[in-house]
Each structure stands twice: as C-alpha cells, then as structure tokens.
Amino acid sequence: MRRAIVYLSFSLFCFCVFFARISHAAGPTKISYFVDTPSTWTKEDSPYLVQNHVVVRAPLTIEPGTVVKFSSGNPADLTLQNDFYVKGTREEPVVFTSIRDDSYMGDNDDDHGYYKPRVGDWIGLNFNPYQDYALKIEHAKIMYSAFGISIYSSNNHYKNRTVKNCEMKNNGYGILVNNAEPVIENNLIANNQFGIGVNASSKVTKISNNSIFDNEFGAIGSNNANPSLGALDARYNWWGDKSGPNGPDNPNGKGNKVFGKVLFDPWIKEDPLQTPDPVIIIPGIMGSWEKNGKWQIDPIFHTYDDLRSAFLANGYEDGEDEENGGNFFTFPYEWRDSNKVNAVELKAKIQKIKNETDRPKVDIVAHSMGGLLAREYIESTYYQNDIDQLITIGTPHLGAPKDYMTWEGGEFMGFESVALKYFFNQEAKENGYDSIFHYIRGRPMSSVQELLPVYDYLYDDNGSDYDLRTGYPANYPRNEFLENLNKREKTAELADTTELSNIVGKQDRQTTTISGYNVVNADMGELWEYGYPHGFEVPWVGDQGLRKSDGDGTVPLYSAEAEQIPFDKTIYFQSRHNGLPTDTQKDILEILIGIRPENEVREWKIDDILISLVFSPVDFQIISPSGERLGKDFKTGEELNEIEGAYYSGFDTDTEFITIPNPEDGEYKILAEGTGEGKYKIEMTKITEDENDPEKTKVSTATIEGMTESGQVQEAEIEITEEEVIYNPDTTPPTIIISSPEEKIYFNDQYDLPVEYSITDDVSASEDITKTIEYDNQPFAEIRLDLSLEFLGEHSFKIAATDEAGNTGEKTITFQITTNLDAIQDNINHYWDLKLIKKKIAKRYLTIKLGHIEKLFDLLEKIENSKLKPKPKQAVIDALKEVINADINRLIKQINRRIPRWFDQNIADLLTESLGCLKIN
Q1: Is the pTM of this model over 0.90?
Q2: Which member of 25, 181, 715, 886 lies 3.0 to 4.6 Å from 804 by CB, making a disulfide possible if both were Cys?
Q3: How many CA atoms lie within 13 A of 403 on its CB side?
Q4: How far is the C-alpha of 75 from the C-alpha of 32, rounded, in Å?
Q5: Per-residue pLDDT band at 66 (split at 50, 70, 90)
C-alpha cells in the first residue's frame, strides 16, 4: 500500500503547472512554480523552501553548503528541464530533504518537531529535459523523497548526466533511471526501499564504485522492450557484504538483494567509500629512469619519495609488491617518447591495477608533464572511463616557456635541469649525436616539443625595446599536441568524466619563472630558428634575454592556472616546481580520502648532487669517505648500492652513471675495471644550488682519464669540498714492512720461524692489493720457515705489492743461517721426528759419533785454557784438531755411503754441510 501511494504521488506532479514566485530575502527563500531565469542558490540564502511542483526551465546552479527543503503537504519536487549543477563538496555537501527534517537549519515548518520526516515526504529531483542539457550532481544528500533522483532520456538525449559522491538515504528510490546512460559513481545508497531502479529499452545503465546496502532491494532492472539486452550493468559495486548481492544468480550472497536484469559480477569485496580508490603517481619529464629493464620513479632527485611515504603512512599499501597487494602505485615511463605513446601505456597500467584490485577506477596524482600525459589518456577515444579523480601538480597545461631554450638551443637552466644536462650530453654521444640539440631533434625527443607553450611569449627587438610577437602559432615553434589537448570540446569532456583538482605553484614574486624571451635574429644554423634570447650566453652582463613572472620556477602561473579548463578545485602553494609534491601532500591526501593528515613527511631536500659519468671501455665503483660502496663489485659481478639515496644506472647500460645526493665532504675512491682496450674517461661533477637564484648553479668538474685493458683495475681519488671537486691522482705505492725474518744470523735449529709482514696503502683496501712473495727468488706461499731444512749461508725474502692504481712497491731483506754442534745434535732428533732419518741405527750412530766429537771439542777447550807451556801446548792443540777433523770426515763419509738406506740425498747434503762447518782450520 505504501509503495502504491509513492507511485501515485509521482504521477500527480506531472499535471501541476503554476507561476514561479521566488523570495529574494536572505534565507529562508521560498520557491514556487517556475525557475525561468539562470539562477544560483547559495548557502547564505538557505534554506530554500520548495513549496510545490517547480519546473526549472533555465540553468540552475546550487553552491556548496546550500540546504533545499521540500514541502510535505503538496507534491513538491524539482522538474529539471535545463542545465542543473549541484556543486557540493565533501566538507559542505548540498542537502535536499523534507521540510520536516529539523536536523538541517532548524524547524522551518513551525511544528516544533511534532512531525518526523519519512519516506515520500517530497517527490524528488526529476531530470527530464527536451534537449541535451547537463545534469551534474556532486556531493549532495537526498533524503525522504519518493524517487530521489530520476533521470529520463526524453527525445533520445543521453549524455551529460553525472551523479557522484552523493548520499541517497531513506527514500522510496535512491535513483530511478529510464533508458539513459548517466554516470553514477562513488555514491552511498542506503536505507531506501529501492536503491536503484532501471527501466531500459535501448540503453544499458552502468553504475560503479557505489556503496549499496541496507535497502529493501539494492537494485532492480527491467527491459521489456529488449529482454536480451539487459538493463543495469552494476559490476564493481559494494553490496554490504564481501559475498556479494543476494539474487537468483548468487543465492549465497549476504549483501543487498538484486532483482531482474542486473549484471553484478564481479563485485567489490570491501566498501569503496571506506577504502580509497587505488592511486597512481605519474612523474614529470625526466622523472623516470630505467635500470635493468625496469623503470623507476625519480631515483635521482627523489622528488616523489616524501609523497610516497605520506601515502603509505595514511592507510595506503604498496601495490607494486605483487605478493601482498595494495592500492598505491607509480607510473614511471619513457619520458623521451610522446605523451600519446605513454598514454597508451598508462591505459594498460590502469587495466592491470583494476584486475588486481577489483576496483573499477583509480585516482591519479600527476606532477608536471605527467598531468598532460594523464589528460591525453582521459581525452582520448580509447579512454575506459576508469579515472575517478585527477590531481595535477605544477602541470604546464598551456606549455612552459622554459622549454623553448631546450627545444631551440639544446640548453638548460636551473639546478635539476643543469644536472640532467650532463645525462643528455652523455646519451647524445653514446647514441651517435654530436650535440644535445641534434639528439633531441634527431631521436626525436617528442616530449620536449610537447611542452612548448601554445600562446604568445616571444618579444622582438624594435631597436629601443621589445614588442610581443602576436599570433601563435605563426612564427613560433608549434605544439600541436597541446593545441589539441586544450580544445574546448576536449576540456569539457575532461571535466565531465573526471573530478579535477589543480595544484599551482605561486611564489608571489614576479621574478621566479621564465615567462618569455627578448629575442633577436641570429644566423646560428639550425639553432634558435625562431629567435635567439639576447645575451643568453653572457649571464654576467644582463638578463640573458629572459622575461620572468610569477610561478613555481618552471611553470608560469598563467600556464599552471589554465583558467579555460573547468577545474573543480584549484589550490595555490608558495612552492617551487619540484617541491610541490612534498609541500602539498596533506592537501592531496585530504582530496582523496577526506581526512587531512596531522603530520608531514619531509625526508628529502637536495641542495647539491654529485654526478659520475663513465665513458667506455670501463665499469666503475665509487667508495665514499665513510667506506660505503656504489657501482659494480668487480669480484662478484653484482651491483653495490650502500649510499643512501644514490642511484647507479647499472653496468649493462650504454650510458653508465652514478648520482649521489647531498654528498659528504672528503675523499672518494674511484675504481675503474677495463671491459676492453683503449682510452677511458670518468667525469665527476658536483652541482650546487644557488640559494639566492634557483636558475643559477655552481658547477665543479674533475676528469679522470687513462688507458685500460680488459680486466685491469685502476684507482683514483677525488676530494669533495663544499663547492669543489678535486682530482688527486694516486702515485704512491703501497707500504711494505717485513717484521720476520729479521736481517740477522739464525742458527739452523729454529724449526718454526714465522713469516710476518704488513702491506698498507693510502687509497686501496688491503683486499684490493695484489702481492707476490719470493724466497730466494722463488715464489713462496708458506707462513713459517724450518731453518733445519735450509742450507747454510745468505737467504733473501722479497715482497712486492701493487695497488689498484698500478703503483708497485717492493721490500727485500736478507738473513744468514749458520750452525754449531748443539744445533746439529738437535737437528738429528728433529729429522728423526720428521721421518727424514730412515733407520733407528742411523740416528744412534750419528748420536754416538757426535757425542764423541763433542768430547774432543771439550778436551780441546780445556787444553786451550790450560797452563801448559806454549810450545808443547800448541803441539797438542794441533794434534787434537787433526783428530777432530778426521772424525768429522769419517762421519761425512759414512753418511754418504749409507744413501739412500739410512738417509735421503737432501738430508745427507744438509748434514754434511753442517758437519763441514764444524771442521777446524
């Protein structure tokens, strides 16, 4: 019965035709019958009291915070037959409710709260124009109506109908659609009798990313005219439960009920209004670099690192980790290519994210040229209507005059640009071009051309001053890409399909940003075809031909604002171009999730940067003053990256380079390993920002050159100071100290003499020094010496060491080995222990004989010390010496006779040499 009353009420309003009477006093403002003139309803004049059936026959705009109440005694409604714009915001939605609803702007029916609001108190917002007028309702609340928002397709008009970010609660129907194709997204549709109802014939209504729950029926679709066509494409919506809606095709679903021709699979498994859309960060030109076949987002200047950390600190999860999933992504890309090419890649990236997250749309935060890339996709014919919000940051919507000097002259200005000029120069050489200009034009580097301005910005010399050259594109380098992107129909489509927020850098100074050039005609060949900036190459004389205005240092305010584009929101920041992503992080997150973070992430501020460029045939490695390594590990063939924030392009690329942000002062060691034969060069450049003028920089460069061959490693030292790079070639060889053996005489009964030495170098680490050790001119690898196994006399010990720069140092020491009777007796036992004396009888024989000889030496000593008379004493001494020598000779003879039964040849030689040393002359 209740539903019958609702339908009866809806039919009654079709016969109501009255005269409009509008009260212009500050609220409440009464509305009756007709709205025949373009009107704007405001928060200040609220509440607007719609007292009956009102036909809107002229454009009507309703501003944020406005409250519109409908009489419950008459069939009150708004029948919309012209453009209707509801421009609520998240903070200040527009409210459409019953006059009995005292929770908004009080008791306007003077019933003191006696009557409570209920379903069907008013009819609804009925959009049924006779022409193709626009319906755009955003951030509105519709409550206690019979039909909420009704959208009809009278006279086959289908376009320009949008309902986004609204709440439809406590209505008969939240939304009712009759054979139309409106955009219905991101809405809360709850506690209604019917969430959404669709009657189709030739058009299938599509809705997505809505939260539909706690309705008696979530969705109803009928199509009697074309039963096979379907009525409602309701894929990618939340139905109140992860199991999906309940219906004949999903009987186990615990969510809201669906009935009729409703396509709902796949569905979202979590409430999209409680969890944000996946977001993609798109960097600007030169904000992506490729490494090992994979693109990375600005690993050099870390422009987006703080913004990334802010997202992850406020509920987003890293979606690049495919194992864990997530909703935060980046889109690094080949920025040298046209934005048209990369827009196709962006489409594929978004599709991949939609497949992974089961979400129908993404949000995009795009910096600088990244905003143009995103716009190119949205404005293309292949756009999939899968971007919900686009936030552009410092985007040159109308081009950047600063780009003129790069396109026309291959020149760069500014801290980041000067740094990147070195990479351009190296790339040009590696790719066979003789200059950056020819590289940009010859490749071609389409993105540079696509950043040229599409308005007048060149001033011609008139003899005493400069006159603006008017009439772009005549006599200007043309940018057809931006011309097409900014066509009125294109920007209108952009605004219709996407919620647009524009963040602009405005430093409130007229000297921050290049906005034009004073040019003169100059015969410079291919360069400066459209005019040379007067005095550009003599900055110490004047302004270099540069005209400046307000902006972010790269994009002038005029281009960033782009007032001809209908942005939903524009936010100004007193920030520089590359600082905008960090400085605006709170606003970006507030736009996307509705909550302003309390804290900011500010971990990266780069004031200077060290750039190392390598020209083949070498790979290289750099070691910081703190010992942290970056580059190629020559031992393992792997990459090293121990310096925070540093970037290494990799040694498998044609253009090998290293960047170190905010390098520490001190000595850096540079190691170069030959990959072939020939001359190599390494350039080390430090670029320091001028705090007083961001367009100016301080540059210091040192060049390391040399000849190399495959596998050869050479080293050099670079000293980094506050503003300078100083090359100190390494010419000092390693220092060698041999502490054992010493330069002295050793008896040959030392069986464990250690070999001890040290090698040090001011540059090379000990493990990187090549050494050779020789003992008596033969390679030596032992750590101890057994002198009993060495022949008597002089021996040499030599160590040579070569550092990575090729400097060689040597150290040689000599020592003597001798023996005596005690040493020989000890050696007999030692040889036996080593099993070098083969027979026990041999050991015993030698021991007895040496004992006998020892007694003869003792007797000789006594006689020499006796008090005998000299002549007889000398005769006895001489006779005794002959006996000793004879015994030694007999012993030597016996040893040699018993080779090899008792002794091998080597031990026999050592023994006979030692015994011969005992003989007395």
Answers
A1: no
A2: 715
A3: 26
A4: 12
A5: very high
